[in-house]
Design brief:
about 230 residues, Rossmann fold, 10 strands, binds adenosine-5'-diphosphate, binds magnesium ion
Length: about 230
Amino acid sequence: MLLKLEKIKKTYQSNEKTAALTVLDLVDFQLADEESCVISGPSGSGKSTLLNIIGGLTGPDSGKVEFNGNDLSELSKDELAHYRNRDIGFIFQQHHLLPQLTLIDNILLPTIPFARQKQDYDSLERARELLERVGLTDRLNHRPGQLSGGECQRVAVIRALINKPRLLLADEPTGALDSDTAANLTDLLLELNTEEKTALIVVTHSRAVAEKFSIHYRLINGKIQVS
Ligand SMILES: Nc1ncnc2c1ncn2[C@@H]1O[C@H](COP(=O)(O)OP(=O)(O)O)[C@@H](O)[C@H]1O
Ligand SMILES: [Mg+2]
């Protein structure tokens, strides 16, 4: 298994007056290398919390996250940073591209920490190839403000893939798009999942998006169910 979650528990304590909220209640979850799945569930059910725990952005209160056989809680600070930057690619509802940078510079931004390390590929060449793959070759020197929302999201997908992550995490990636653009972006994610040999977890509350996946989970009342 690429990813294995065991008995993950996460509780938020907002303040002394409100009761603690258990968002994830002994969640078990697994994903194999190159596999894709979708997680749906009502707003506030803990989907983003779960992705953030998988991505090493938040720690669980208890339970274990294993990636490629390594327990995330046992990684050093540097190893955890490496995990977030190299093993994982993140896509959010908003593209979070930097408006003052060209598309090509936005895509190359995540490669900066590794610029002095030898890669078996050239990042600039890879960025160009990926831009061509998503049909934006002629826009590489444009800035995000010159593109549509769907185009920006395609660039955000490439930026997430530039360091060749093993796992792509997408939190409501189509939430800001109209339904046709959402369908196209989901198709693109699934195609790139195969072409780039990454595993993929998409969180969505869109039924149309969820229907494109063969493995479905539902997060509800702190529990994850196959659906
Ligand atoms: N840092 C936090 N502190 C307190 N409560 C939080 C925090 N983050 C999320 N929550 C609460 O936990 C619940 C789950 O949030 P979230 O994981 O964002 O759900 P979803 O992504 O499914 O909408 C929500 O009720 C939210 O208000
Ligand atoms: Mg969310």
